[in-house]
Amino acid sequence: MTFKILLDLAWRYWHWAVISLLVVIIIALSVVYAQRGHAIDNIKVQHELVLATERADYEARARQIEHQNYQGVIDAVNQSTIRQKQIADKYDSVVVINDSLSDSITNIETSLINANRAAVIDYTKSVNGLFTECTGRYLEMAKNAAREQEEARRLRDAWPTR
C-alpha cells in the first residue's frame, strides 16, 4: 500500500520531480564548469611560470656569453700588449745592432781606402752576404706582418657585432 501511495504521489507531482532532476543536473554542471575554470587558471599560472623560468635561463645564458666575450676581449688585449712589448724589445735590439753595423761599415770603409784589391773583394763579399741576409730577414718580417694582419682580420670578422 505504501508503494501505491508513492506511485500515486509521483504521478500527481511528476513535473516537480523533473524540475528537481533538472536542478540537480544544473548544479552538477555548475560545479563541473567551476572546476574547469580553476583548471584553466592553474594551466595559465603554470604557463606563466614556465615562461618566466625560460626568460631567466635565457638572460643567464646571455650574461654568460657576454662575460665570455668580454673575457675574450681582455685576453686578446693582454696578448696584444705582450706582443707589442716583444716587438718593441726586438725593435730596440735591432736598432742597436743596426747602429753597430753602420759604425762597423763606416770603419771598414775608411780602412779600405788604403787597402789592397783582395781586401776590397773580401769586403764586397761580406757586404753581399750581409745584404742577402737582410733581404731574407726583410721577407721573413713581411711574412710575419702579413700573418699578423690576417689574424687580426680573422679576429675582427669572428667577433660578434651588436
Automatic annotation (TrEMBL):
- Report which superkingdom the organism of origin falls in: Bacteria
Keywords from the UniProt entry: Membrane, Transmembrane, Transmembrane helix
Residues passing through the membrane, by range: 13-34
Protein name (Swiss-Prot/TrEMBL): Uncharacterized protein
